[in-house]
Amino acid sequence: MHNKIFSIVIVAVFLAFTIVFDTLPRSTYSELEKRELKTFPEYSFDKLKDGSFMEEISSWFSDSEPYRDRFMALSMYVKDGLGVALSDDNVKFHASDTPAGGSGNMGGNESGELAIGEYKNDLTADENAKIANAGIIVVGSGDNVRALMAFGGGTKGGVSYANVANAYKKAFGSKVNVYCMVIPTAVEFYCPDKAKSCTRPQLPVIKNIFAHLDDGVKPVDIYTTLGQHAAEDIYLRTDHHWAPLGAYYAAKKFAEVAKVPFRDLSHYTKKTVKNYVGSMYGYSKDISIKKAPEDFVYYVPNGLKYTTTYINYTIDKNYHVTGEGKPFKSSFFFHFKDGNGGAYCTFMGSDTRITVVRTPVKNGRRVMVIKDSFGNPIPGFLFYSFEEVHVIDFRYFKKNMKAYVNNNKITDILFACNIFNAYSGVVSRNCTRFLTQDGRIVVPAEKTERNDVAADTLKKEKPVRDVPVKHEAVLTERKDTTRKR
User: Fold this and answer.
1) What is the pLDDT of residues 101-129, one digit of tens each?
2) At what angle are helices 426-434 and 159-172 packed, to 10 degrees?
């Protein structure tokens, strides 16, 4: 009798899974992993003949399973409850452990004094930590848990980032000011001492980049500034990006170096998206990140009449630009509902576009921000500082840079990329090409690896789009003076 009941239960379970996986709609996008899922492959006789067509179907079937994110979350809950390691590299560090390497006080000396620019972690130095999936360092527990992406760069890296800033200064001469900003990531300020051996310090790399700048290029040292405000919410706990507050302090430092006016936060309206869980949940595969949502806080200028114009690029599945749209006006800020994991798309809605903001400021200064996704929140704090703010993503710009700068009378160029992209050399390669490209859109015949913070760091993961275009479709505009969404 018991065997019969057991057999019926097993058959029922398999039947239920068959119905779910074979009849329900397939998943197309993973909020957990922040990526588009595989689509059904295109048929060709050659692919059928060599067996690749069936392999692609198998890959599509497993990648696009119905309720994919829910099943993955359920698996994490089960593993967490059973105490199962999330990966083969899962290692835990406790406050009582002996450090695996070094003292963990970055840049300190025996006298306890800190040199200019150095930072001593008094916030999370003694906290527990563990290494989760893909080498993500998970710090603390409960509502204050934080996920950190380890940095592996050497002290002599990043020279190409300095060289491209030098090249731009040489190309445009005295009529254009060129600035170099390197954005450190959260691991630099919040990594516990006991886990310091799992990452490398970023300050030596930043110093090396600045040391290679020509005299005409102005460094923007936000490392010191961020270190001074590390006790504030300047980085997101559940996402690999910084928080808009961190970008505010960086923009303030840039305005100081550029010698333009700057308004403090009393001139902004604070907006909040509650229960935000960002990219680090999907990267780390650690359920503690999902259990500790945070507030995504951003700031909208008060009563400032400005216009935002976009030119959209269309891209293919390999992130190659395939077309360019016509200019259109829209909002700079896009508001997301509470709990939406795409809230970092608040600024400009997408990376795959050129953005131009025209402000009521009359000082003859027009800035171009050449950035990665870390740079997205910076322009919103410069509307009181420049007549125009142009925003270019180093991955997607297709126009000739010399013509663009001359035609738009750009007076200031700011390179603002996180240290992973600054170190990798891809910013230099792309931006150097911008100076000579003719503006035509040519799609490469072969797929190339996408270089961004996710692809460079999480080499075992599939490329992850920092700002999925998919989210744009669900937004609706509001008609007000700040064009919020």
Assistant:
1) 333 333 333 333 444 678 999 999 999 99
2) 20
For residues 449 and 463, the answer to whether their CB atoms sit within 8 Å is yes
Report the first-to-last Cα separation within the chain, whole angstroms: 62
Distance CA 206, CA 473 (A): 38
* Structure confidence by residue, pLDDT tens digits, 189-238: 999 999 999 999 999 999 999 999 999 999 999 999 999 999 999 999 99
Three-state DSSP class for 73? helix
- Helix (H) or strand (E) holding 45, with range, is helix 45-50
Do 455 and 449 form a contact (C-beta atoms < 8 A)?
yes
Report pTM. Answer: 0.76
**Spatial distance between the Cα atoms of 180 and 183, rounded to a whole number of angstroms:** 10
Interstrand relation of 146-148 and 137-139 (parallel, antiparallel or unpaired): antiparallel
Write the CB contacts of 159 (distance below 8 Å, at least 6 apart in sequence): 208, 209, 212
Considering only CA atoms, which of 150, 129, 146, 81 is closest in space to residue 293?
A: 146
